[in-house]
């Protein structure tokens, strides 16, 4: 059967959770055993989001194949428990780049190259390439931004044209605000958004409506009437305790059956075991038996999206430990000013990844506090590099130890650039990226106890590395190097002895899923829970 398409468009404003909606649709279809793949379009002219500031755009997500993609890919993977690939991410930058390259090669000789049809055709051909090579039953296309934006206008035109050739279902994601004083759910903004969509030549087959409380009968009726739809095609997407409940919430409204029918997919029955397992996980999110409090000491804590994967990895690890993980987001610059009093009462400390000088000393201070007070510590990428710096300074007594990223002149650059990185001039896509295999020492190491394997694979995104010149002195002073690349050239894991303190050069949070939580996070939370007990 040819691939069918679903297009999710936001017609009112951004931030309505299109990524969660798309992932929930994918999950719904997955429960029936259909092979459904997402495609995400982002209108910016960057080739990918690798060069963007996480403070503005949210976390940069990395896939096995080295692609640096929008954080929504993290949501797709966490819901589907499947690895995504870079060809599923289409950006304005990729489209314009491809068209201009073709023009230079002379592929459009004689023509004046235009948005329509050249750019729109390029978009359609990128979408169809995924369909032709991967042959999924369904592709669900998420259009970034809002209908009416200049940035996505030509892509919306492309999907309108796609629908002329292929079975395509359009979904309008909108929002109904409630006026607190009268408690009334308003539909006028949604009506205006709907009108914008009509101007693009698109008539939606379904409306999904975000709101803070469940849609009232008359709100749904009004939305249906103004959208030329039956009421059953207006789907409630009101606030839920956890985003992982949304597929089930949709299915309770019969959305799964309606969508499958509309897509004219062959009939299949639902996999009840899969569904049961998902429901059990959700139940454990809703009803935790224990509570644990961990600090994340970082430099982008003002925007939670900057650490989306860490936040989710904690939810998954919490489920595994039957615990609710409370996160104290601590801005490292604030810790520099106010000191470690900010860490009072936390059961574990995590220092996440990051770039640039700001807040580094605050993170080192938190790491020292964890080591000296035997508080479970997990260092991720930058958090591992600073664990090495702290150890070099305070245990090996190399007072000016630092990463060369922050002090290019120090004699004790315990974190330095690989020679292959020194020659790099282009910043885009040139870090150590994607999945890397790692060899783990099996003798009495935390890493082995956690992963229970001598060969693992995690995702990376960094330029700097542990400086091998310092391996001996650090090991001599008691630092454990418990994991390296297969050729042993690059250090991947370091540990403190006799306490839960571990740093990894990788980003294990990127592979954590509700159905397959990251072992490092699971064990870190377990250690933090034990730490809670020891404090009581
Ligand atoms: N800035 C460090 C590097 O480039 C760490 C990067 C990170 O934490 N992802 O190596």
Could you give the topology of this structure?
Layout: E1 4-10, H1 18-31, E2 36-42, H2 54-57, E3 61-62, E4 68-69, H3 72-80, E5 89-91, H4 92-105, H5 115-134, E6 138-143, H6 150-165, E7 168-175, E8 178-179, E9 184-185, H7 188-199, E10 206-211, H8 217-226, E11 234-238, H9 246-252, H10 255-262, H11 272-286, E12 290-298, H12 308-320, E13 323-331, H13 332-338, E14 348-351, H14 360-372, E15 377-380, H15 382-394, E16 402-403, E17 413-417, H16 419-422, E18 432-440, H17 446-451, E19 455-462, E20 464-466, H18 471-476, E21 480-484, E22 491-495, E23 501-504, H19 519-535
Parallel strand pairs: 1-6, 1-7, 2-5, 2-6, 7-10, 10-11, 12-13, 12-14, 14-15, 15-23, 16-17
Antiparallel strand pairs: 3-4, 8-9, 17-20, 18-19, 18-21, 21-22, 22-23
Helix pairs in contact: 1-3, 1-9, 4-5, 5-6, 12-19, 13-14, 14-15
This protein binds glutamine.
The helix content, as a percent range, equals 25-40%
Largest sheet, if any?
Answer: 9 strands, mixed
Number of helices, where a helix is a run of at least 4 consecutive DSSP H or I residues: 19
Average pLDDT number: 95
Give the strand order of the largest sheet, numbering strands 1, 2, ... along the chain. Answer: 13-12-14-15-23-22-21-18-19
Reading off the top of the CATH hierarchy, the class of the largest domain is best stated as Alpha Beta
* Strand element count: 23
| Structural class determined from secondary elements | alpha/beta
Bound molecules: glutamine
């Amino acid at each position: 059967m040819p691939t069918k398409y679903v297009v999710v468009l936001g017609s009112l404003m951004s931030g309505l959770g299109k990524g969660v909606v798309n992932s929930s649709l994918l999950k719904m279809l997955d429960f029936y055993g259909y092979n459904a793949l997402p495609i995400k379009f982002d209108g910016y002219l960057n080739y990918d989001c690798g060069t963007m500031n996480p403070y503005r755009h949210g976390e940069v997500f990395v896939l096995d194949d080295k692609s640096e993609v929008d954080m929504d890919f993290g949501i797709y993977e966490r819901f589907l428990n499947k690895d995504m690939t870079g060809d599923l991410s289409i950006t304005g930058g990729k489209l314009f780049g491809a068209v201009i390259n073709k023009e230079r090669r002379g592929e459009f000789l004689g023509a004046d190259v235009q948005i329509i049809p050249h750019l729109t055709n390029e978009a359609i051909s990128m979408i169809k390439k995924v369909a032709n090579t991967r042959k999924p039953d369904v592709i669900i296309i998420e259009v970034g931004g809002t209908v009416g934006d200049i940035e996505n206008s030509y892509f919306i035109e492309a999907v309108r044209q796609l629908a002329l050739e292929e079975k395509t279902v359009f979904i309008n994601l909108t929002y109904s605000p409630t006026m607190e004083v009268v408690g009334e759910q308003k539909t006028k903004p949604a009506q205006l958004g709907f009108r914008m969509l009509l101007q693009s030549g698109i008539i939606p087959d379904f409306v999904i409506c975000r709101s803070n409380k469940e849609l009232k009968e008359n709100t749904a009726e009004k939305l249906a009437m103004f959208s030329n739809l039956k009421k059953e095609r207006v789907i409630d997407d009101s606030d839920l305790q956890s985003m992982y409940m949304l597929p089930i919430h949709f299915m309770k409204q019969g959305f799964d059956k309606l969508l499958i029918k509309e897509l004219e997919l062959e009939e299949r029955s639902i996999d009840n075991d899969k569904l049961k397992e998902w429901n059990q996980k959700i139940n454990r999110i809703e009803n935790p038996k224990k509570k644990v409090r961990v600090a994340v000491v970082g430099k982008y804590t003002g925007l939670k999206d900057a650490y989306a994967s860490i936040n989710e990895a904690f939810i998954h690890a919490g489920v595994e430990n039957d615990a609710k993980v409370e996160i104290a987001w601590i801005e490292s610059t604030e810790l520099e000013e106010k000191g470690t009093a900010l860490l009072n009462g936390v059961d574990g400390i995590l220092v996440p990844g990051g770039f640039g000088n700001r807040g580094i000393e605050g993170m080192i201070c938190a790491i020292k506090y964890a080591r000296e007070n035997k508080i479970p510590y997990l260092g991720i990428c930058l958090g591992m590099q600073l664990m090495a710096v702290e150890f070099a300074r305070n245990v090996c007594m190399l007072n000016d130890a630092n990463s060369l990223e922050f002090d290019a002149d120090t004699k004790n650059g315990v974190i330095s650039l690989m020679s292959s990185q020194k020659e790099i001039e282009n910043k885009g896509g040139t870090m150590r990226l994607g999945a890397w295999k790692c060899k783990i020492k099996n003798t009495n190491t935390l890493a082995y106890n956690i992963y229970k394997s001598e060969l693992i694979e995690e995702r990376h995104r960094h330029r700097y590395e542990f400086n091998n010149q310092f391996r001996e002195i650090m090991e001599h002073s008691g630092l454990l190097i418990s994991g390296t690349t297969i050729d042993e050239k690059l250090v991947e894991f370091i540990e403190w002895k006799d306490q839960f303190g571990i740093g990894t050069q990788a980003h294990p949070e990127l592979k954590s899923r509700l159905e397959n939580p990251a072992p490092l996070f699971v064990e870190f939370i377990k250690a933090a829970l034990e730490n809670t007990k020891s404090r009581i």
